[in-house]
User: Which sequence fits this backbone?
């Protein structure tokens, strides 16, 4: 066996060991996975009660479209501990996929292993794993669909991801503004297909979800909680009403700037930065973006590292360490949280308590400034070519 083969085997074994050991170190009970399993079981037994059924010891409701309940059916019959570990193993594998696409598909295993380990240590990934959340799978599906330009049916996985949880719909807008028409058609068709499948499997629950529950953000949790790192969370903690005029103005401005910058970065041959800006736009604009939704800080951090330190390895390492170290310590956890204590924050505590949002805005600002320093690509024989430092980036063009 070659040295490279040994490294790959060691990487797989290390990921499996981490996947098995991590659940033993948490106080969490995999609450979200419990709800997912209940949804899967309900789809098999009584689909009409999908949004009313609750676990005896956990009153959290199921908040995803009915199609997602079908996706969770295979986990329903498994013993709980086995289901949790299988979920963790698959989630760590999803981290590997995310990192692989964020860096480069040819990145050496010796680099991939510590990179994946660093990402697992970050608070959004830790929380996603401990709760048994779906975020990492959605992130991996979208990144594969957007960045791997060789696979057939690009756009389908975005539609399927949106069918499981509506937040990936923001990437349909990315396909639209970057004029990826075929992928856009596939994404829309796939999403509509998931809706139709949901109606076929659970017509009553589907009607309830798409006519009423889809507009009820209150089922997700209290908007003022510090874990909500979105514009809405920031304004609510400052005393504004949830979904008020301040939030709507911020959302409108964020969408305009976010889509413009996503398009500009894509045209400059920076698809990872374009994708990351679009994902950040979605996180900022959602009524509630829990801290574990911020797994998108992985591609955003890689894109940031590239533009500020393209030819300086030491600076690149410093920026990467600073960015991922920031999300490992998760400053928003340093301030008083829950039970409405967020309403009593001082000005300094508001800066700390909105740490993810502020860091994301700073990263997007750096990407925007960097994009201004790159000449717009010129059309050569009908093909748009990137200029400047973007030549070295993979997956450029359409």
Assistant:
């Amino acid at each position: 066996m070659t040295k490279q083969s040994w490294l790959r085997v060691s990487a797989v074994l290390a990921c499996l060991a981490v996947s098995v050991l991590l659940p033993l170190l948490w106080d969490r009970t995999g609450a979200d996975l419990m709800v997912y399993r209940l949804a899967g079981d309900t789809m098999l037994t009584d689909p009409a009660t999908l949004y009313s059924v609750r676990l005896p010891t956990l009153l959290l409701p199921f908040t995803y479209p009915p199609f997602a309940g079908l996706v969770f059916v295979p986990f329903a019959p498994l013993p709980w501990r086995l289901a949790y570990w299988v979920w963790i193993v698959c989630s760590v594998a999803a981290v590997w996929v995310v990192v692989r696409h964020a860096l480069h598909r040819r990145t050496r295993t010796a680099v991939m292993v510590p990179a994946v380990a660093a990402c697992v240590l970050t608070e959004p990934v830790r929380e996603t794993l401990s709760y048994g959340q779906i975020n990492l799978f959605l992130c991996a599906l979208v990144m594969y669909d957007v960045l791997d330009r060789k696979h057939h049916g690009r756009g389908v996985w975005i539609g399927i991801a949106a069918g499981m949880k509506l937040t990936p719909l923001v990437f349909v807008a990315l396909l639209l503004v970057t004029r990826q028409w075929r992928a856009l058609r596939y994404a829309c068709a796939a999403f509509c297909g998931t809706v139709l499948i949901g109606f076929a499997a659970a017509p009553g629950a589907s009607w309830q979800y798409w006519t009423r529950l889809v507009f009820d953000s209150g089922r997700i949790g209290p908007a003022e909680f510090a874990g909500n790192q979105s514009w809405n969370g920031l304004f609510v903690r400052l005393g504004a009403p949830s979904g008020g005029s301040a939030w709507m103005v911020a959302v409108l401005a964020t969408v305009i700037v976010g889509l413009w910058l996503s398009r500009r970065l894509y045209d400059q041959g920076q698809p990872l930065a374009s994708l990351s800006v679009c994902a950040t736009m979605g996180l900022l604009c959602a009524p509630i973006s829990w801290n574990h939704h911020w797994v998108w800080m992985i591609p955003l951090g890689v894109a940031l590292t590239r533009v500020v330190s393209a030819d300086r390895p030491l600076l690149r390492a410093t920026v990467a360490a600073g960015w991922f170290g920031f999300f490992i310590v998760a400053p928003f956890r340093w301030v008083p949280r829950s039970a409405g204590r967020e309403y009593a924050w001082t000005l300094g505590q508001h800066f700390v308590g909105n740490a993810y949002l502020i860091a994301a805005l700073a990263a997007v600002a750096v990407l925007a400034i960097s994009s201004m320093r790159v000449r717009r690509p010129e059309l050569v024989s009908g093909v748009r070519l990137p200029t400047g430092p973007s030549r070295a980036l993979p997956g450029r063009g359409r």
User: Anything to note?
Assistant: Confidence is low (pLDDT under 50) at residues 378-398. The CA atoms of residues 100 and 107 lie 7 Å apart.
